[in-house]
Design brief:
The complex is a heterodimer of chains A (212) and B (555). Chain A has 212 residues and is an alpha/beta fold. Chain A has 10 helices and 5 strands; from the N terminus they run E-H-E-H-E-H-E-H-E-H-H-H-H-H-H. In chain A, strand 4, helix 4 and strand 5 form a beta-alpha-beta unit. The relative contact order of chain A is 0.10. By secondary structure, chain B is an alpha+beta fold. The chains are: A alpha/beta (212), B alpha+beta (555).
């Protein structure tokens, strides 16, 4: 699977500053998608490639911090590098606490901005990878039967086949068969890997408490 | 014991003496014709002798018409009738000498018995002198009244704020009108107390006025320079010989001036403000009658100069205060200003950095570099414009009236507070009239007032829900005035307290000085306008000011 080239999304109401950022971004061989307001950015479709958002804190209408709060509610929050003409400490703290990659007062050093953008893209790439993996695991998990899901939960909890059979009121042989199905469907190499997948899917054996 | 005959003879002699020696003309009138007269009558009427007058009628010795318009013949009959009726009658009459010249007389007619009938005993007293004196008195009273009225007018000019040079010129003209051949001038002493400054001298030669303006005062500096230096009057009866004029002799000759009497003008506290001088083209010494003119002139000129200095002082203090208020407002705007300036600076620094990196590469794309440099240059200009906009508000300046378009001023101010509004999440709506008539005011001070009103409006809405934070700036023409209104949706004002807002040091802000509105109002009033506050029907407050519309329209 080849990855699409990453983009830098610039949201700033100042034309000349947007132009500068596009120029800067182009020097590291990346493309820019510019917006002159938070509203315009929100109206556009989300990028389907690794991306980093360079966002002006103070804009007419929705401010940069407002946009950050709205994006945080999305499944894949974009990494944000903030810029501001005149930042104060509370503003910076709020932005960084909410997970901003960087916070730069204009003027800043280009290299610092490039580093932050690169880090943002790396973070997003990682995030995308994780989301993709999770989606994949989720779809594998979705293909399990309900009995297989019960076995999956108990296996990853560390129960032995015998205990599982007892809990589910079935034979150890049947459990073994289910277990083999689970391992195959989940494309796991080992029980350890199954456990990691269960962790990411936040699967917990609920059956045990019910029938015990 | 004196006998009856002797008694009668004495009495007749006495009568004869009274008749003959009386300084008044005495005539006897019988049946409308003079039958006798004394020597005084002959002299008074310039007759050759007594005979010339006898058998003449009163109208023969009078002009055809009396001053009241009645023909002398008719009036004479009326007067005679009255005298017979009452026994005697006294009245004024215009008489005519034999040589034709007319003169006023007071006439006393007394009816006396004579040979079983009544004749008239006529006494004429020449009242030419008295009449002349009366006329003189009336004339001097008239000119005195005119002089007083003139003083009143000059004082009124001062009260109404006429310029000092106009006031002094009127004063000089008034004083000059009181005395023939006199030329006057008022000079001021400079603030440092060392030099002469021109005041008013509408009738002195220009060359003289210019030479005097800026000359130093001193112990031997003409009449005025010396009078101001000594603080006492200096009378020079001949400028061509007086030692005080040694250094200025040529100037005096050139200007055709010979006498100059100068009196210092003092403040109420006795400080010299200037001098008042009377000039003559011939050598002349004061006769004494000029003293009163000098007193009036120095008194009024003193009031005028002191008034002007007090006004200047007030104006200066007011503009200093306005400046402090502007700087304070700019302090409140500091964060916004920093943001606005850093915006282009950020792009400049960044673009410059990129260019430097490009130039270190082997194959430089000069077109790209040129584009970036172009952007740098544009941003540099932008930053400089922002700074000059702010600088014009912060630097000290002397207020100057000029015709202004209020909508333009409003646009400039909205540009200034735009970012501050954005920071405070306030949306500014502008409804600015097109083609407004000009108002006469100082641009910076009007900007200051609007800026203050906008900042107050933004501040007033900090507790208003963000989506309701609307600031509306309007300009309209209304009843011959141009009106500007700034409406907010803040906490509003209690009607009873709307006037308190304009008191100095009244503030609702934690960091406010409480001078903004007081200064704003004094600025608007100094341009003949009004500033007031009222409640906004939709919640919040409206601050408005109106200025008289000029005739000029400014696009």
């Amino acid at each position: 699977m080849t990855e699409k080239p990453p983009v830098v999304i610039v949201v700033d109401d100042d034309d000349s500053f947007r132009n500068f950022l596009s120029r800067l971004v182009s020097t590291i061989g990346l493309k820019t998608v510019p917006f002159d307001s938070a509203e315009a950015f929100l109206a556009a479709p989300a990028p389907d490639c690794p991306a980093c958002l360079v966002l002006d804190v103070q804009m007419p209408g929705l401010s940069g911090l407002d946009l950050q709060r709205q994006l945080a509610r999305r499944s894949r929050p974009l990494p944000i590098v903030f810029t501001t003409g005149h930042g104060d400490i509370p503003m910076t703290v709020e932005a960084m606490k909410a997970g901003a990659v960087g916070f730069f007062s204009k003027p800043f050093r280009n290299q610092d901005m490039i580093d932050a953008i690169k880090e943002g893209i790396a973070r997003d790439r990682e995030m995308r990878k994780q989301v993709e993996e999770l989606t994949e695991i989720q779809s594998r998990y979705d293909s399990l039967t309900s009995r297989e899901r019960e076995v999956f939960a108990l296996v990853t909890e560390g129960s032995l086949n015998k205990q599982i059979a007892h809990q589910l009121g079935t034979s150890e042989r049947t459990v073994k068969a289910h277990r083999a199905q689970v391992v195959q469907k989940m494309k796991a190499d080992s029980v350890a890997e199954l456990v990691r997948m269960a962790d990411r899917l936040k699967i917990h054996p609920q059956i045990t408490q019910k029938s015990a | 014991m004196i006998g009856a005959n002797k008694q009668q003879a004495l009495s007749e002699l006495a009568l004869r003496l009274v008749f003959e020696r009386s300084p008044d003309a005495i005539l006897l009138l019988d049946d409308g014709v003079f039958i006798d007269c004394n020597q005084a009558a002959v002299d008074m009427l310039c007759a050759a002798g007594k005979d010339e007058l006898l058998s003449l009628t009163p109208s023969d010795l009078s002009p055809a018409i009396q001053p009241d318009g009645t023909p002398s013949t008719i009036k004479a009959q009326q007067m005679i009738a009255t005298a017979f009726e009452r026994g005697s009658h006294r009245f004024e009459w215009l008489a005519k000498r034999r040589n034709g010249s007319e003169f006023p007389v007071e006439v006393l007619l007394t009816a006396i018995p004579f040979l079983q009938r009544q004749i008239l005993y006529v006494v004429w007293r020449d009242i030419s002198r008295r009449k002349e004196a009366e006329r003189e008195l009336a004339k001097s009273r008239e000119s005195e009244d005119a002089f007083r009225a003139g003083q009143g007018r000059v004082l009124e000019m001062i009260a109404q704020g006429a310029t000092l040079s106009d006031v002094l010129a009127s004063l000089v003209t008034l004083i000059e009108a009181q005395s023939e051949g006199m030329i006057c001038s008022v000079l001021q002493l400079s603030e440092d107390g060392k030099h002469i400054r021109h005041g008013a001298a509408p009738n002195l030669p220009e060359i003289y006025v210019q030479a005097v303006n800026g000359a130093p005062i001193g112990p031997k500096n003409g009449s005025c320079g010396t009078a101001m230096y000594r603080g006492e009057p200096v009378i020079v009866t001949d400028m061509l010989t007086d030692p005080l004029w040694e250094d200025y002799r040529e100037l005096a000759k050139l200007s055709g001036l010979r006498a100059c009497w100068s009196t210092p003008i003092f403040t109420g506290q006795g400080k010299v403000l200037g001098s008042f001088a009377m000039y003559y083209r011939e050598p002349q010494a004061p006769a004494g009658s000029e003293a009163r003119l000098t007193e009036v002139a120095t008194h009024i000129a003193g009031i005028a100069i002191e008034h002007e200095r007090a006004q200047n002082e007030l104006q200066h203090t007011r503009s200093e205060l306005a400046h402090v208020a502007r700087v304070t407002t700019m302090g409140e705007l500091a964060a916004s200003i920093a943001h606005e300036v850093n915006q282009p600076l950020g792009a400049i620094v960044g673009n410059a950095d990129i260019c430097r990196n490009w130039l270190q590469e082997k194959d430089v794309d000069l077109k790209q570099v040129a584009e970036a440099l172009e952007d740098i240059s544009n941003d540099g200009h932008r930053a400089s414009q922002i700074i000059s906009r702010i600088r014009s508000l912060v630097k000290k300046h002397v207020p100057e009236k000029a015709p202004l378009n209020l909508s333009d001023v409003a646009r400039e101010v909205i540009g200034l507070v735009g970012h501050e509004a954005q920071r405070k999440q306030v949306t500014i709506y502008s409804q600015l009239g097109e083609s407004l008539p000009a108002v006469e005011a100082d641009r910076v001070q009007l900007q200051q007032v609007l800026l203050n009103l906008c900042m107050n409006g933004i501040e007033a809405m900090h507790e208003t829900a963000a989506y309701q934070r609307h600031l509306t700036v309007q300009t309209v023409v209304l009843n011959g005035n141009v009106l500007a209104a700034v409406s907010d949706r803040g906490m509003g004002i209690e009607p009873a307290k709307s006037e308190q807002l304009f008191k100095p040091f009244h503030t609702t802000k934690a960091n406010g000085m409480g001078m903004g509105l007081a200064i704003s109002r004094s600025i608007i009033e100094s341009f003949g306008g009004k500033l007031w506050a009222e409640s906004n029907a939709g919640g919040g407050a409206i601050f408005s000011f109106s200025l008289p519309a000029g005739s000029q329209e400014i696009q």
